[in-house]
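In this supplementary section we document a worked example of the pipeline. Step one takes a protein sequence of length 1074 as its only input; no multiple sequence alignment statistics are reported here. Step two produces a three-dimensional model, which step three serialises into structure tokens for compact storage. The input and output of this example are shown verbatim.
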Amino acid sequence: MKQRFSSLDVKVIAHELSASLVSLRLSNIYDLSSKILLFKFAKPDNKKQLLIDSGFRCHLTEFTRTTADSPSLFVQKLRKLLKTRRVTAVSQIGTDRIIEFQFSDGLYRIYLEFFAGGNVICTDNELKILTLLRHVPEGEGQEPQRPGLTYSLENRQNYGGVPPLTKERVQKALQNIIERNAASTAAGVKVKKKPGDELRKGLAITINELPPILLDHAMRATGFDSTVPPATVRDDEALLDHLLRSLQAGRDLVGEITSSDTCKGYIFAKTRPGTEQLPEASPQGEMSPRKGLLYEDFHPFLPRQLAENPAYTVIELDSFGKTVDEFFSSIEGQKLESRLTEREAAARRKLEAAKADQEKRIEGLKAVQTLNVRKANAIEANVERVQEAMDAVNGLIAQGMDWEDIGNLIDRERRLNNPVATIISLPLKLHENTITVLLGEAEEDEQDDDDEAYETDSSDDFDSGIGGSATSSMKNQDRRLAIEINLGLSPYSNAREYYEERKVAAVKEQKTKQQSEIALKSAGQKIEAELRKGLKQEKPVLQPIRRQMWFEKFVWFLSTDGYLVLGGKDAQQNELLYRRYLKKGDVYVHADLHGAASVIIKNNPSTPDAPIPPSTLSQAGSLAVCSSSAWDSKASMSAWWVTTDQVSKSAPTGEYLPAGSFMVRGKKNFLPASQLVMGFALMFKVSEESKAKHVKHRLYDSPVRTETVSEAPTATTSAAVADDTVTKETEARAESDSEESAAEEEDSKPRENPLQSSGGNAGESERLDTIDEVEPSEQMDQLTISKEATASQTPEPNQASEQDEQAEEDDVATEADTIPTGNANPTSSSTPEPATQSKKKGQQPKRGQRAKAKKIAAKYRDQDEEDRAAIEALIGSAAGRQRAEAEAKAKAEREAALEAARERRRAQHQRQQRETAEHEEVRKIMLDEGIEMLDPDEVANLSPLDALVGTPLPGDEILEVVALCAPYAALGKCKYKVKLQPGAQKKGKAVKEILEGWKAASNKKGVVDEKGADKERMWPREVELIKGMKPEDSINTVPMKSLKVMASGGASGSGGGGSGQGKGKGGGKGGKKK
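The serialised model returned by step three reads:
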């Protein structure tokens, strides 16, 4: 079985990884084991997982794997150096089995070695080793490797380029092969090679850009005989030319393989012993589990020597990366399944052993009862014989005979066929006042009497009768019961004693049965706990990575009427929802609360003027309120909704709307106060065949049209629409900008009264409620900076710099400019005359200062500039002047940089305003004319909504499980759901508790319906998907930061749907969880 990459495999996988990973950022690195690492790369709507098995393989994987609880020191260093950096190049080093990953244009590099013990080495741009997986000391056949040393590339195979394939090079290679073989023969070294394999193995070493499997394929494809000795090929020009053509064909095949971004891969498998099942053709190159096949080999081309072998089954895939992933993941999955099966089998064996032990005890008690009854019956059937034996022994004891002599006498009499002595068994237990008698049961005695009636008196028959009687006596002795008789009791009293022992055994049997049930239950629980503990230590079976649907990046849910509701998680998602998903007929829902989400309800594109049901509007409003500060304050508030044409990004003149903020014009339609009750639930994705069995409860029952002509736009409340997407809103804007949030809180107070009176005065409310999401824009006039602003008037740049990309630099410059201007000339103390003149220029000198100035002028009248400079240098005043000049220059530079930043911000704001104005103009035209612009991916992904069901029906093919958080009223059709209310528990811990509760409930007796027919019980496929869920993948679906988990409900919302069954699905308690 192939276990590691060849040089050709490395070349092909590096080529595919270059096409897949370049421009992606490294999001995180994980440990799977001591030598296996998992790199996660991502950019918007594109996530990849790279599996690296040091020394063996490296490929993208489509299966989820369990990571280590804590990262190793090596992974910690890699995270510190490479996390969030972009991949800029992936390539092979020459033709060696080394792959190079470059991050940030070569600032950091990762080298993966797939030879010897393998290694993962991280270097800087100068190839200085920063960290590595395995330290390599000297003496292992290669240079030492440890942090601080330089990683050498010059001695790698064909690092300077692959030399051209010429006849001279082939001749030299053949000569090297001949010399090497001669040296080995002279040294007496035995080389294990197949007959005729000398040429192929030698060329693989000398022409090292072609691996042996490719050389063999090229020779077979061109008809070259690989069994020809190298010396014959060297001396024959025709054979040499033929070999050159074969090698060139191999190089051409390598170029053909790497000519496209991806190349096909081939897996060669053998049939598993004991099965004849053949693999089915996989549609579109997707792999399905191939039961009955054992994978043996894989290659990026179809080797002729393997394709012609009837023992192999060839499986073709459309990508070499998928081929490697399927090959190794299948083997890994089989190992994991075998380990899990072995643990479960061991647990079952323990339980069966405990049951067998209890059954053995009960059977022993039943045998004791039966034996005691048989003994009592035998005594009653042989009362006279027992009495005779008791009288004989008691008489000997009464005569004072020694106990040993009594035993010897009985033995002598038994040999003389004394009938009384024959039923007494030795040794006697006279010290216990008991003897053991051998008695036949009543039925056997009758049978013996019948046999004696047929005896004859003839001599022949007499002789034969002696032998027959001896044989029959032996058989009878074997069938007789050994019964202890108390010499102090009568035979009937002895029989009564055995009946009493039978009764005691019967009572003991009953108690043992009762205790065995308790013992078996306790043993089963203990074994089950040990099994769960062992299964936690084992890695779960590999599951394919679930691809998220387009709306899962938002906060989403399906209303009870089938409308898709979307909410943004931050300001960027709010902007994305508005620009891409808020279409004609949709409804915008929001609440006048701090941090409230902007929510949209997607309507059916084919009927955009259809009104949205009140229940859907109420559920969307609950999402907006619960995602705001009302959740933490436990205050129930109301939300409002408007139509699409009332929401825009057009700000008033001179103002600017940041990302995630919108203008709302016209009347707001307020909803009733929302309850602060959310729910965490699971929905299942079923196959296309199973989707047809469910009642039509979605709105997309007709093809989505990409361009529709609508009637005249309406602004009435009945024209509001919603169906397929709901969005979240201002929460990130208020949290990220402290000044904007302060402005919002100030503006929220004067807005309350006009909004409350909107229902009574509709004409005035339309003008009063023209601005909703634009609270920060009312403060935006402070961002406009006057050109005549001086350096001392710097608060405006401070406010504006909070939205600039270079905010930190601007803030620093602003703080530096706050130095008072009165201290701008520090030379006044060191140069008295110029400072005095400049200081008195605009005012009359004080008394006595004029005479003092005259004396100074007369004193320094004959001093020239050179003398003044020398004196200033001598007394140190020149340093002060130079410092003042440097500070003045620095101030001028700061003012210039500040002005450049202002101009840059002004240009950026103007550009964004122009883009917003153009977008709003295009959007208005599209809304007026009814044009819907949807991406092809969005159109293709609208239909999967029908495949999401809350409660599967019997016979459904369940594909995936999807977690969501929504208002509890919208989860009525969900089989698995938990109620959430405001509380102090962190959402991560709460989600983990919920999932663990469902997993624990699946192990309870009677909860799982193995047939999958009872909708109120858990099904095996549901349990399998739930056990494969990870808490970290479901945490982001909850928009609240803290909460409290309440009791769960069943499919009908009745709290579980049955005695103990629903209780298991809700976390195992059935009551509140603290």
